[in-house]
Each structure stands twice: as structure tokens, then as C-alpha cells.
């Protein structure tokens, strides 16, 4: 077990932590030009330019707000559909599952124009509600998958038992299913928020620039040869899903049967 | 049972309502690709050598990237899942997921290009005579850079999708296999695989369709020729004259149909009775 | 499947339903300037523009925004968005008959302008109502009449002017090539030290059009002629053989061309290649200051000349605040705003303003601006100036270059 842990640490350090460190270093120094023989030139220039941008904070808060809303809708739709899929064992299930997965199979460039037209028709174009709705397209199929799998693992017996004992639908969801779905919710939080945060084209078109999210501020800087700014932006970007993940982790402590840090461990 | 059936239907309602949005978009794309001229645009792209060579290159590159990601992700989860129950460990593994794809692609360039840190470190260590001897791994005609970026980025996703399944496999099953005299391979094929297969197939479909159709990474780290289909589609779409737009829509509709058919095939295989039986009492 | 039928029906209903049809009826180009200014007072103007250069962003955020607030009481909102995306948004809105849009001012030129004009995405002719345009610009200047060969017809107002230059590191070598012929020799003598972005990319395409100009009998054969493939066949043949001869000695033997100017800039920054280029004669200044380019970076232009163009501001068809847009554009064209833009601190870009029409004191101020060591002198730039060809050449070049150079 200890050897395994050592391997795990070596692998994750090498593959996942070192790139992050490199990015951090770059964000804290001027663009590297080692061939000239000069070393690291430390400085806050990357972050200074980042924080000079008057739109940064607005974009950050709007992105977080949208992230939470999208997550909430994802949990709702994913939970219902995942549950329904487990109870559904009739013919045509393959069709149904393919249908539910299809939104992430279609290139978003293909549907962007149609989606914009749709949003204009229902009057949600250029609004934050429209952006939230549109962020469901690349995320909901994942949620359905994740919840479906979790319900499958939970087993039908686990879902029939409370029903037999007379629990109502919502009681069952909150006291039995949600606590058991905790790993799924964790994965989902991470996934939906990261996906929602990296939507540039859809947000730009549907939000029409009226809904300013972080990628809208960030993407144009891809045309910039200054690697420090890029790195600083990337770090800022990564902090958001991380902090939201921690918030969700704290919130989940209030689900029934959670181990609370201030209680004795079993 | 009738009552239960109705209730199931109610549970599908939110998803059904949600599906209107992408389907409206797709319908619109189909209409645009026809452009009121029947299938001429489809005919045109299917006779375009540039399109066909990009199709082959895309399927090959996306296929390799997807299969590698799944094998590595599966191995990693299988080997380390007890450790992954710690939040801190999980977050470490998920670091690449914190960044959008293009940032990761950009990091690959910083790391692995001919002027990148690896080349510089190897030269400094004396393993390489000159930076220019470093192999061309980014913007290469074989798509190596694209594959590295995607594998590095998708392995954590595979871990994320597989981890809940592994976490929920009851250790009693392994004990059962052991007591019946099975070895590690038996444990994998009789306990893990039936549980994992749906997730593995779905992961394949998700990652494959993403890598096939996403634009940012190949645009950043791909080369001039051969090009990925997404890059070609993007050029047709945002090209200087808008006359090529129906071609872009036709290319994207074809890609979507291909992926949809692939998905259907995947689910039909999964729904075959043999696999359902092996998953035990859970239909 | 049956259960989903109602939803599909609903979807089809949405597709056929029509949205709001409110229009902003008033034609503000008929109004007096006082009326426009009065109407603009206290409104919000949304300026949509490419946002990838912090120097340009800072010019808008730190200078233009507070100034229009002072002068017209307008609150200016800069929205970073790529021009093709802006146009796509407008086109879909046009299709949905959305008359109340969200964009008031866009930054545009060339092929984007052509697309916008052809698809009727612009408000119409408005430049003649702008006092600053009439007072300080040579309204008859051909550079304002045609934009990449497309008739402007007053649908966009000139905001800036840029010229294509090459950059080199004066510490690496001393005498940059003076003609395109010499460039070929230079590349042969310095294998692997030169490359250009692919034709899909704005800068790369402009480089290739320079080669086309150089291979023609005279550049005017290209820029004064609409694209007729048969007429330029010999020139085109010479262009491809020039590029193909050069290819083996390019960076990575021409197997890969940078996908973007950024990629080329990074190669230059890393010392991999010794030259870069760009469609803005002063762009090296800020990159030197940030430490991306070496301080010894200088620019040069080659015979037969360097292509320059004008970029413009325009108003979309469904701008919700046309008076505000007109007032804001008028300010951005003013001598003060242009002078500030000319200074190298933030943007450092050339001005399309006519010096002859300026009051003496401002003229002096323009003359006193030091544009920086990496920028060529105004005389040198003017001497080498060549106008842009028709926009159709851009597309033609993309397609042909791929077939004749990349796949060969």
C-alpha cells in the first residue's frame, strides 16, 4: 500500500502537478527567452495586466453565478432522468440513450446559429437566462450518464425498499438517494463547472456580449504573444472551479448521514 | 405497473424539454446544409479530396487519442482507486480538468516544442547536442501533438467517470472470485468488466466525438496539412466569403450523423442480453 | 419515441413563430448634429471589438471611455468579441427580424465589411453627418472610398491606418533584404530562419499578396484589377514557383506553417526564426517593452512596397442607440483622440486624419510624437505604401496557396 502510494504520488506529481507549477512560474515571470542566456525575470506583470482589466471581477462573478445555476439544473435533470432510465427496461432503450447523449455528439459550431435563432424567438437571447439554458447543452448529457450509472450501481432494491416502507418521492430522494449519490455529485460539480467555464462561442453568441463571462475576456488574449498574461489568466481560470468544488463539498456535509468533521469518526 | 410507468414518464419530462434546444439547432443546421439546393453541397464535399483526407486524419487521430486515454485512465483507476477516495488526491489528479483544452494545448507547446522546456532541459543536461535534435512532437504531420494533448487532458476525465463505479463495486465480489479460485484476470473480467463496460463504451463515445469535432486544440497544435475536419469546417464557416457556409454545415451534419450512428451501435451492443445478465440483478 | 412528439411539435411552432417587430423608425442621418448630441446625452453605447491586445484595450478603457463620458455623457461599454462572430450574431438577428439589437458600434474592415455590406447588416451611410470627419479628414481620399475594393459609400468611418512591415533582430544580422528577390537569397543563405503564417491567417495572407504584387509586372496590375484568374495566370505561376523554391529553406523545411501570427511571434521571441512580420508598423514597440521581443528588434519594408490599409468604425442595422453610436464615433475620429492613439504609450497606431486640415498646434503635437526606434519613419512608410487589392484575392490566395504550395 505504501509503495502504491509512492507510485501514485510520483505519477501525479510528474503528470499533473509539474505542468501546473510550470504555469505558475510563467505567470510570475516575464516571457521566457532562455536561449539568450537570461534566467527567470520575476514579476507580477502578468497579474497586473489581468487585474487592470476593469471587466475581470464582473466576469468572474457572473461566471460563478452561471456555474451554480447550471450545476443546479444539471443535478435536477440528471437525477430525474438517471432514475427514470434505471426503471425503464423496455424496448428502444438503446435509442433513448443515444438520443440523450446526442447533444454532445453534434459539433457546437453546427448548432450555434440555430440555438441563437431559438433564443431570439423565445426572447432569451442576450440575457443571462439564455446563457444558463445554453450551457445545459454541453453538460446535461454528462449528468444523465453519471447519475444513470450511479443509480445502476445503487441497485433497484435500494430504491424499492424506501418505497415499500412508505417513503414519499422526495423523502426518498433526500434521505436515501442523494447521500448515496455523493460521489456522482462531486464528479458532476467539477465537470459542469469546467465545461460551463470554457464555453466561448456559445456564450458569445447567445449572451451577445451583454452577459460577460470569463472566457469572453480571456479568449481574445489567445492572440497575444505575451505568455505571462496567458499563464496568469489560466491560473485565475482554474481557481474558480476549484473554489466552487470546495463550496459544494461543504454544502454536501449537510446531506443526511454525512460524516461531519466536528463529529466523531466511526 | 401502469402507475409506475406514468411516473417514469414524468421523470423524463425535464430531459425531454431540454432536448428541444439542441434538436432545434440541429434541424436548423440540416436546413442550412441543404440550402434549398438538395444534396449538391453534400455531393461537393464528398468529392473534395481535401475533405476526405481530413476525415481520415481526424478519425485516425481521434481514435488513437480516445483508446489511449481509456486504457491509461482505466489502468490508473484500477490501480489507485482506494487512494482516490481522498479529496486531496482526487483534486491532484483532476488538475488538467481545471484548464480549458486550449490552455492545456498551449502548455504542451511550452513543454514539448523544439524550443520548449523539455528540449532546453535535455540540452542543458547534455543528453541532446542541440535543441534542434529534439523530435518534432507539436504541429507535426502525424498529429502527435494533438494526441498527447487530448490523452493528457482526457485521462482525468476517464478517471472521473470510472471512479464512482469502482467506488461502488462491493469488495465481497472479489472475495467471491478469490474463494472460487479465480486470479486477478478473472476478478477483472467477471467483476470489473460487466460493471465498467457501459461506462467504458460511453466514455469512448464522449471522448471520441469530442476529439473528432473540437476545434481549439487542432487549431493550436495541429499543422497546415493534414488538417482535422473541425479546422476545415471552421475555415469554411468563418472563411472570408460566406459562400462556403453550406459546405461547413454539410460537413458538420455528416460528422454528427456518423457519431450518432456509432452511438446507436454502441448502445445496441450494450443492451445485448449477455451483458445485462452479467451485471446481475440490475437491468 | 412517441412521447417526445409534443416537444418536436412545440419546436416546429417556435421555428415558424415570429419575434418582435419593433423598429427604430427615426432616420438619424437626417437629423441635425445638435439633435443627435442631445439625444446621445446620458445613454449607453456598446462598442464591440476584437480584444486581444491590452494596449488597444487600455486605450479604450483608460482614455476613450472617460472622455466620451465627459464630453457627451455617454457611458461606453467595450465588449471583446471577434469580428466574424459579431457578424454572425447580426446575421442571425437579421434572419429573426430582431430590430432591437445589442451592438451600437463595431470595428471592421476588408472582407468583414464586404460580408456585412452584402448581407445588409449595417445601418447605412452615416459618415457625412459626423462633424469631425468632415472637418479633419480628406473625405475624397481613395483610401476612404474603397475598402479592399468594396465601395464604402459612407457606411463606415475611418478610425486608423496601418501598414505591413517586417521585423528583424538587428543583433542577429545587419542588412535586411531590400527586395523580395533578396529575401529569397537571404532565405537560401539562412535556411530555417524564416517562415510566414499560413494563408488562412490574416498576416500570412497579406504576406502572400505582397509576393503576388512583387511577381506582377507592376503592383498596380493586381490592386487596380478585379480578380480575373485568366489574366493573372503568369503572375500566379511565378508566385507559386517563388514560394516553392523558398519552401525547403523555410523553418522546418516548410512542412509546417505557423497557424497564427502569435505562433510566429513566439518563434521569433525564442530565436528560432530571425524575422517576423505584421500588419501594423508600430506593433513591435509594446512587444519589446513587455520583453517578448528582443530590444534590438527593428522593422523594414521591401521593394516593390508594403501594403497598407485603413480600418473603420461602423454601426449595425439594429443598433438600439444610433445617436449615441454617432456621437461616440465622432469622438473617436477627433484630432485629440487620434493624437492619443498615435502616441506609443498605449496603442501607437497611425492616423488617417489629414494633417493639412488640422489647426497648427495639434499638427505640431502630432509631429512631436516619438513613435519609437523600431518604427520606420513616416516618409519611408509613405514612399513604400501600396493599396490593398480587392477582397476576392484574399480568398483566392487561401485556396490556391493550399493547392499549389502546401500539397505540392
From TrEMBL, chain A:
Q: Where are the transmembrane segments?
A: 61-86, 98-122, 128-148, 188-209, 229-257
- ABC transmembrane type-1 domain ranges (all copies): 60-248
The family database entries (InterPro entries) matched by this protein are listed as:
MetI-like, MetI-like_sf
Name where it mostly resides. membrane
Cellular location of this protein? Cell inner membrane; Cell membrane
- Please report the record's description of how this protein sits within the membrane: Multi-pass membrane protein
One of the GO biological process terms: transmembrane transport
Under Pfam families, the record lists: BPD_transp_1
What family is this protein classified in?
A: Belongs to the binding-protein-dependent transport system permease family.
Q: What is this protein called?
A: ABC transporter permease subunit
Automatic annotation (TrEMBL), chain B:
Q: Which domain of life is it from?
A: Bacteria
Q: Which Pfam families match?
A: BPD_transp_1
The answer to whether the entry has keyword Membrane is yes
**Chief site of localization:** membrane
**Membrane topology classification:** Multi-pass membrane protein
User: Which BP terms does GO give this entry?
Assistant: transmembrane transport
- Per UniProt, residues of the ABC transmembrane type-1 domain are 51-266
Segments spanning the bilayer are 9-31, 51-81, 93-112, 144-166, 196-215, 247-270
Has the keyword Transmembrane helix been applied to this entry?
yes
Its annotated compartments are: Cell membrane; Membrane
PROSITE patterns linked = ABC_TM1
Tell me which GO cellular component terms the UniProt record holds: plasma membrane
Q: Which UniProt keywords apply?
A: Membrane, Transmembrane, Transmembrane helix, Transport
The record, for InterPro entries, names: MetI-like, MetI-like_sf, Sugar_ABC_transporter
Family that this chain belongs to:
Belongs to the binding-protein-dependent transport system permease family.
Q: What is this protein called?
A: ABC transporter permease subunit
Q: What is the lineage of its organism?
A: Bacteria, Bacillati, Bacillota, Bacilli, Bacillales
